[in-house]
Amino acid sequence: MPLASPPSAAPAPHPPSPAVTMSLEYEAFTQFHRARYLRYAQTRTSDPAAAALAVEEAFSDLAAIWGEVLRSPNPAAIAWPVLRQAVERRSPPPTAATVFHFLPPGHADAVVLHHGLGLPLAETAELMGIDISALRARLAASGRLLGTQPPGPTADGAPRRRGLP
């Protein structure tokens, strides 16, 4: 009766290649942001098909520069303008009825995300790749520019909470 050969040692697993790692990180990024990007794009375009195309275009543009995005200390800060540009290409021109007619793009985005879509401050800031204090400043300035938030203290003399209605 032949002797059984000793079990062979399994080869050591190889670390994933950089392309696989990039792909996994890219997929995680797109899955994490897709739903909120789509909500924003649908609000801007008023067309679900155009919104979906804009988001896919933005993700494709990001894939082309993914190495740069990953090296950035704040990938969302690179991704947000890419998304905004893709959405702008598929959006109708701003009318006097939209915040995009009156406000700089970053301010209008903050208003749409926080007030229009109801995202919390922290989530809005994270999505746009800015810190909360910068978001609050944009929202406060937007309120003043739109005439919805007067500057200075409230009617009872208390300091106005910046960035909040």
From TrEMBL:
**GO terms under cellular component:** DNA-directed RNA polymerase complex
UniProt entry tagged with the keyword RNA-binding? no
Alphabetically list the UniProt keywords.
DNA-directed RNA polymerase, Transcription
Region (Disordered) residue ranges read: 144-165
Name by which UniProt lists this protein: DNA-directed RNA polymerase specialized sigma subunit, sigma24 family
